[in-house]
Amino acid sequence: MPRISSWIVRHYRLLALTCAVASFASGACLGLFPPRQILFWVLFVTAIATTAGAVGLPMYAEHNTAQRARDAVEAAEEAKAQMLLVTNSVLNPLAYLLGALTDADSKAEIRELQGLVCTMVLSGTTELISTPSNTTRTSFFRIQPGRPPRKMNIVAWYGTPDPPTWNVVEGTPLGDAFFEILEQDKIAFYPDLQTMAPAGWTLDNYQALIVVPVATPKQRLGLLIVENTAPNSMSDQDVDVVRLLGELLATALNQS
User: Fold this and answer.
1) What is the Cα–Cα distance from 106 to 235, expressed in whole angstroms?
2) Tens digit of pLDDT for each residue in 8-32?
3) Would the pLDDT of 229 be above 60?
4) Which backbone phi and psi does 115 adopt, to 5 degrees?
5) Against a cut of 0.70, is the pTM above it?
6) How far apart are alpha carbons 98 and 114 in whole angstroms?
7) What pLDDT shows up at residue 93?
8) Which architecture does CATH list for 104-253?
9) Across-strand partners of 222?
10) What's the confidence (pLDDT) of residue 52?
């Protein structure tokens, strides 16, 4: 039905002209036949229908155009409201903490502030992306120093009582997939894990996934991972939010 409506909107001028011509032709034919014949009533009904089409199609097209304009305005307002929420609830406090990190004098103070930043990033990401109908879990995996193979261990998570149970080790399918995301500094977005998922992924209650590198130009730190229980529940706009928060987390953790 939406495809048909869209086609009508695009071609309504041609359709309206066709209806008008058909109406005129039907009216002309009416004068050639006596009213008592059945053909009169057929042509009479046809004339009414085509005249209505000639008038109604432009009105229908105008209505659809106006509705699309209203939808676009609503989407823009929603995006603006979300960004305002991000700024007020997450970015302003994070800016304060990053400023405090710059002024920190001791390693103990730096570690404490970095822990606060990590907690705020995880909780802020989860709250911004969650909706009443589904559940989001955000976690931070960090590269652990040591001998090969390289590993990423979970540092913290937010959104559910249970942490992720992945074994992110280089040389395994999932480990190689996640390390590739980190090394290439790329964002991975899987809207529906039932149709597409990282190599080695074990499907559980979560059906959508965003994986964002936590990295600076000189240092690869780990991955910020967001899961959602509903497929197609996260959008490109959510990916942008996670990317921004991942960059802020990387900035905080890069402080020595």
Assistant:
1) 40
2) 555 555 555 565 556 556 555 555 5
3) yes
4) -65, -40
5) no
6) 9
7) 83
8) 2-Layer Sandwich (3.30)
9) 142, 214
10) 60
Cα separation, 139 vs 227, whole angstroms: 9
Domain residue limits, the chain: 2-70, 104-253
Residues 201-214 pLDDT 10s: 876 788 999 999 99
Q: Looking at the DSSP assignment, which residues form a beta bridge with residue 79?
A: none
SS3 per-residue string spanning the chain:
CHHHHHHHHHCHHHHHHHHHHHHHHHHHHHCCCCCCCHHHHHHHHHHHHHHHHHHHHHHHHHHHHHHHHHHHHHHHHHHHHHHHHHHHHHHHHHHHHHHHHHHCCCHHHHHHHHHHHHHHHHHHHHHHHCCCCCCEEEEEEEEECCCCCCEEEEEEEECCCCCCCCCEEECEHHHHHHHHHHHCCCCEEECCCCCCCCCCCCCCCCCEEEEEEEECCCCEEEEEEEEECCCCCCCHHHHHHHHHHHHHHHHHHCCC
For 132-184, how does the pLDDT look when each residue is reduced to its tens digit (9 = 90+)? 657 899 999 999 988 889 999 999 999 888 889 888 999 999 999 999 999 99
